[in-house]
Each structure stands twice: as structure tokens, then as C-alpha cells.
Amino acid sequence: MTDFLDLGMHIYRTHTCNELRATHAGDTARLSGWVFRKRDHGGILFIDLRDHYGVTQVVVHPSRPFFDELTRLHVESVITVTGSVTRRDPETVNPDIPTGEVELVAEACTVESVAEVLPLVLAGEEEAGEEARLKYRFLDIRRDRVHRNLLLRSGVISHVRRQMEAQGFHEYQTPILTSSSPEGARDYLVPSRVHPGKFYALPQAPQMFKQLLMVGGFDRYFQIAPCFRDEDARADRSPGEFYQLDIEMSFVTQDEVFAVVESVLHSTFTRFSGKTVDSAPWRRIPYREAMLKYGSDKPDLRIPLEMCDVTEVFRQSGFKAFAGAIASGAVVRALPVPGIKTQPRSFFDKLVEYAMGLGAKGLAYLVWDGDVVKGPIRKFLTDAELGALAQAGAMRDGDVMFFFCDEASAAARVGGDIRCKLGRDLGRVEKDVFRFCWIVDFPMYERDSETGAVAFSHNPFSMPQGGLEALDAADPLSILAYQYDVVCNGVELSSGAIRNHSPEIMYKAFALAGYSREDVESRFGCLLNAFRYGAPPHGGIAPGIDRMVMLLAGEENIREVIAFPMNQKAQDLMMQAPATVSEKQLRELHIQLRGAPREAGQAKAPPAQKEP
RNA sequence: GGGGGAGUGGCGCAAUUGGUUAGCGCACCGGACUGUCGAUCCGGUGGUUGCGGGUUCGAGCCCCGUCUCUCCCGCCA
């Protein structure tokens, strides 16, 4: 192949594997990439050569000296091929790939890297198990689907940055090694070598820093910010670490924060998907209304079903199971579902079973069939009561109404779950659409279900609606906060708030949750202190980047949009993290382990022998 | 911390529900083949059914323990 090297060509490639077209026919070209597929006809060998950009077919004739070597070469080996770009015969054109009109007829070839037999299959539809995929993630991300997801992620982040900057925001970095925060999720701790017995913490979010940037006069902050929380994973929640589009603004109202997010998210979702995206302004749903109608503070608005409260209809009714529960504080929520009276009995029986699996004591329902109402609880109700229910749910022939009777939060939880299940099972989830909404007016406080004490329901730094005076309310649970969530298709993308920038209001707000002045000073002294030297009213929000990309990619699991994710137990199976460390490292950090680590054999040095 | 599902050659799956030699596809090795694009055809190698114990004439299947993965609840201001 020295002849070709002498032509002054780049030693690896003159084009990518997605560049050659019919117009290149007759040219000499050089490509490098992975052997994606081989088709060996004995007398002729076809290789699909793949790189980041695409696939090009390489043709190898048996007269070539490298023919035998390429025949035996394993897929995913890396080669450089030089040859002439040749137009394919009309009947051999491959319309499925952009380079399908041509092929590269190999004249010279270098094997750059021989691949061993792969531990997982890359070509085709088959997907390896999670464990294998994560252990060999560097192979897994060669697969087209994951590769495209990561490109999408890159595009989304780039686009978001441009949008934020166009709106006058600036990106600032905040510390990764910081101090442990007393509220919220468990921190990841990092021991200090210089200060024996002391620890840094990784930030759960740059919350304090972005507020301090506002105090520092920067006005419009954003950051694609890494966040670290030592909490257990979910399908839509990456364990350990994730990224937020962290935003904070000075001298703003809640509506101005909404306008920024609506603009950026609408632009991003429109640009990176073909689906319909709700145009701004998005629906604002008060928290209590969301819990009543959808049984959730992250309602999936693609499902055209809504609950209503029918407690009063049942309070004095002859249906003692409900009336009795209502007398001791329960509510009754009704979910009308149009046009399902023809569903078989088994449909309803399974649903009852499902509801009981969720912790409900049962699932009552009524069927509107022509002029009559049927169902297991029909006999307990008067015509007047049935009329009231029909009116509450706008019931028509063929409709069915389900009832959830329980303490309010349990009724909402079960009803909300069944609303979503019915939406899915009945095929009534609106397709190809991103439905956004804001959940607003979150309560400032809630009652701790275990202790019964009044506790912050969300962010303790939120401004109570009505300010200082509002905190004098007789019932703290009635106080609302300038606290909001943005929700898309049933996925919570973000929480945010207008912050409490007044030390006096902070003391009082914390006092209601049982914190003394001294508690507040010691736990949040830095922020409190900053607010004593001139703090602008400010607020912000922090949409989750991973979840946005997950929605745009149409993936069910957040790992599919992260290059090197950890598994559910927060282990990196590829890098083998977390891992034991040497005794020397521990000594430098003034750390003595309480017990011998179970996999002590993997440590390079013996673990600490003494118990503390 | 709790509950559900799963673990069978390198990979993805099956095994008539306790029955004889654990099958299939891909990959791998060998052979045939000059136009395929998931090439095709012929032949072959490869398995202590996660691990340990138990029940049974007999266990991939049932029971107990244990490990691993996954989904959910708790948790995630």
C-alpha cells in the first residue's frame, strides 16, 4: 500500500464512513473504522465498515494479499482501507444507508486493531443483559441506539447553553468539594487529609452557591451542574450523580421564572423531537387541585381522565363501608371512565385485585347502562345519590365510575395509580405529544406521617406566600409557598422556588417547623449571614438534564442516556467503583475502618486489623 | 430496610410444569460458494443449569440458605 501512502493522503482516512456518494465515483479514498458485518462469499468478501458517522460497504477481491486475513478477522476489529470509490450496479444499490449507491473496492488494507470474540452482540436487535452492558459499556455505546442517545444528549446540552446565553444568563462553576448540608438527601462525604476527622461533602445541588451568586450581584445564573445524592435509584433516577440545568434569577416573580423555562424547554423539545409540544404559557395547576383531579403532583396530562370529590354524596348514604370511613376522616374520590361498560367482568375483577395490591381495601364502581345504573354497590344508594354522582362525573350511557375511599393521601395515591393504569391499558394515552404543566402553590408545611410534627414539605428556603404575616396563620398547614414543579408527561422535570431572602422570615418559618434561632444559625449560618448584607429577592429552578434527554429519546430507563452509568446499587461495574483502598491511603486520611471490608482480598494492602 | 421478577455454553432465549442424551438462534472453529447487505449451505467445538444444602427412584424445574442483576416501595429539602 506504499503507493497510496505516497499520494499524500491522510494516513487514516480521507472521508468518514458516511461521506461517499455517487459523485465520488472514480475517486481514490481511504476509510478507517470498525468491521461491523462481514459477508464472505468465498470469491468475494463484503465488509460493512462503521465509524461514528455511518457505514460504508467495502468490497475485497480474493486476488488481494490481505484477503485471507480479512476473511478471518473478527467483527469489531479496526481497519484502514484504501481503494477506489465505485458506483454500484442499480440492482445492488442499498437504499437503507446513505452511502448505499457506492462501495469502496479495497486496494490496500491495514489492520489497526484486532478484536477478540465479543462478550456481547452489537449488530442486530438483540440486547445483552444489563450487567454485561454496563461491564462492557465501551462496547455497548458503539450500538446505534445508545450512540444516538448520547449524541442527542450532547445536542440538548449545547442547545440549552445557547438558549440560556441568548436570554442573558451566564454560566458559573460552583465547588464540587463543599460542606455537608443538614437537610435533604444523604451526602457523599470526602475525608480531609489536612484536617483530621473532618469531611467535605459533594453538593446535592449548587443551591446555596447559586443563591450566594445572587447576593453577589450576578443577576442571571445558570450551570449544567453535576449533583450528587446518596439515595437509591429508580428507572428515572440515576444513583449517585446526575445533571441539572441549574437556574437562578434576581428581582423576579414566579411568572418570570416560568417564562424562561417555558422558552428554553419548548425550544429544546421542539428542536429535538417530532412530537407536538405544548406552547407557552403552560397550564398552572395548584397542588391541591392536582392531588384531587390526578392523584399526583406529577400528573400525566396525556391521559384524558380526571377524578372528582364525592365525599358528601356518601356521607349520609346507606353504603356503610364508605359512610363509616368518612365519619372517621376518609374522603371519597370518583374516577369516571367513559365507554367501558362492555368490558368483561374479568376486567373489573382484575382491577379490583390491582387496587387491593396497592393497599386499597377494595374498589367500588358503578356502571351507567342505558337508563339504569348497575354495579356491586348500586343497592346501597338512592336515586338521588346516583343522580348526584351522575352529575359530578357527567356520566353518560356506557360510562363507569370508580370510587376510592380512604384517608385523602391514600385515596389520591390509589386513584392516581389506577387513572394511569386505565389510561395505558385502554390505549387512551395521547400519542406523540409532550404535555407540560406547572404545579404551583405547594403547601409550605406538611405533617410528618411518623411523628405527627409540622415539617417543611419541600424546600425550607422557599418564600411563604404572604410573607411574614402569613406565617401567623392559625394552621401552619394552610400556608402556601412560592414553590413550583414543572411536569412533562407524568415525569417531574424540576422543582423550583422563589427564595426566602429575609432573615426574619427565615427564623419564623423555621420556628414553625420546630427549629430554634440557634438551630437555624448553626445549620444555615452562611446563607443567613449573607442575607444580612443586602440580598436581592431571587428565585430559580433546576430542570433535570438526564430526564429531559430520556423523554426526548423515548427511553424508559435513565441509564440509556448516560455514557457511563452506575447500576442500581450505585456500582460502576466497568471501573469497579466503589472499591477498597490501601491502608496507606486510609492512614493519610486518618480513617480506621469499623469492620473488615468483605472483599478485603481485593485491596492491595491488608485492611485495618483493629476494631475501633 | 421491605416486596415482585430473573439467573441455563461467549451473547440472547427454550426445555411439554419432577422424567431418559438440556435444545434453538447468533457468535466461534473447519469446509463450500464471485454481488451480498441479518449472505447462504454443510459439518464441528463449547454447558458442574449463579453458589451451597435438602426432598425424591429421579431436580434446570420443588424446598431452605446465599450471591448477583432488575423493577417497585421506603428514601430522593
Structure description:
It is a single chain. The chain is α+β, with helices and mostly antiparallel strands and 612 residues long. Helices cover 29% and strands 23% of the residues. It contains 18 helices and 24 strands. β22 and β23 form a beta hairpin. α8 packs across α13 (408-425) and α15 packs antiparallel against α16 (517-530). The model is unreliable at 597-612 (pLDDT under 50). The structure holds one RNA strand of 77 nucleotides.
Strand order of the largest sheet: 6-9-10-24-23-22-19-12
Range of strand content: 15-25%
User: What is the strand tally?
Assistant: 24
Q: Which sheet architecture does the biggest sheet show?
A: 8 strands, mixed
Q: Rg from C-alpha positions?
A: 31 Å
Low-confidence stretches: 597-612
Counting helices, strands and paired strands, the structural category is alpha+beta
The average pLDDT is 91
Q: Outline, from the CA principal axes?
A: globular
Brief write-up:
This protein is an alpha+beta fold. The chain binds one RNA strand of 77 nucleotides through β1, β2, β3 and α3.
Question: Notable features of this structure?
Answer:
29% helix; disordered C terminus; five-stranded mixed β-barrel; 18 helices; 612 residues; RNA-binding; 24 strands; eight-stranded mixed sheet; single chain; alpha+beta
